[in-house]
Amino acid sequence: MTKSVAVLYGGWSAEREVSLVSGKAVAVALRGRGHRVELIDVGRDLDALLRALRPAPDVVFNALHGKGGEDGTIQGVLDMLGLPYTHSGVRPSAIAMSKPATKQVVGSVGIRTARGVVAPPEQVAERHLMEPPYVVKPAAEGSSVGVRIVRANDNAPAIDLAGWGYGEALVEEYVPGRELTVGVMGDRALTVTEIAHTHAFFDYDAKYTEGHAVHTLPAQVPGDVSAEAMRLALLAHRTLGCRGISRTDFRWNDTRPGTEGLYFLEINTQPGFTPISLVPEQAKHIGVDFADLCEWLLEDAACGR
């Protein structure tokens, strides 16, 4: 059935450029399926957003990433308006955007995470809060924005205070090994992708610049590791109360026996929808093309209200 769809994209977070690409790709796919699609570049002007959402669309496709669009803020507005929207609601979105809160929640169901501590950036810049190597990341940002690995021989401060601007920092032990990720679609874990890249870790540029990362799917890892990663991704999705799709990232220390080296890093409640994004690629691997995935999310949004 043809629907009127408002695609929210852009926003004001550090992930604005990625969101613009995601939103445009979604709009093209949905228009190709016959839907009436309006692209809305979301800013901080709430009145402008409310005007853009009149008359009310049948469904809102939330293609925003990062703060304002993925942290429960826009979800709360859409809930107040009574509009069905894709992806997760207020609570799971807010929890997932906070890395420390997420670690607490998933840890409560036995999901292994790296040892970490939350601290003001000034304290992190002043001294080592744990023995290097360790990872410093914003406590509440997505797409590896602001992430840095601190090694034993580094002379520079762990945080450049002049360019930080992210609030509290999460200092986390560095887990050596390989990058794995698992997409979840509804009640199904899709597959495991291994990400190899030219950077020290899977940072923002590696994620969103074509040619900087190689995706291998299904990942060439032992069967028990693959099965456990998929189980944990689905468990994290359900424990947080996510809806629609999510993507959970792991580090796997392949020097440890069995699945002991598998560590949860984070869950993304609104993974990218760019041409090189991981979840659309995984969905295609199981026979769901990009337009089908967008269509499924519309139906899931309507059913989830």
Concise overview:
With 305 residues, the protein is an alpha+beta fold. It is built from 10 helices and 12 strands.
* Radius of gyration over C-alpha positions, nearest whole angstrom: 19 Å
Order of helices and strands: EHEHEHHHEHEEEEEHEHEEHH
Overall 3D geometry?
Answer: globular
**How many β-strand runs?**
12
Largest sheet: 5 strands, antiparallel
Protein name: D-alanine--D-alanine ligase
Main location: cytoplasm
Active site: 15, 143, 277
EC number: 6.3.2.4
Describe this structure in words.
The chain is an alpha+beta fold and 305 residues long. The chain has ten helices and twelve strands. The chain has a five-stranded antiparallel β-sheet. It has a four-stranded antiparallel β-sheet with strand order 4-7-5-6. Helix 1 links the parallel strand 1 and strand 2 (36-42). Helix 1 crosses helix 10 (290-303). The longest helix has 18 residues, at 223-240. The model is unreliable at 201-210 (pLDDT under 50).
List strands and helices in order, with pairings:
Layout: E1 4-10, H1 16-32, E2 36-42, H2 46-52, E3 59-62, H3 73-81, H4 90-97, H5 99-107, E4 116-119, H6 121-126, E5 134-138, E6 148-150, E7 169-173, E8 178-185, E9 188-197, H7 204-208, E10 213-216, H8 223-240, E11 245-252, E12 262-268, H9 278-285, H10 290-303
Parallel strand pairs: 1-2, 1-3
Antiparallel strand pairs: 4-7, 5-6, 5-7, 8-9, 8-11, 9-10, 11-12
Short key terms for the protein model shown above:
metal ion binding; 305 residues; four-stranded antiparallel sheet; alpha+beta; ATP-binding; EC 6.3.2.4; 12 strands; ligase; globular; five-stranded antiparallel sheet; manganese
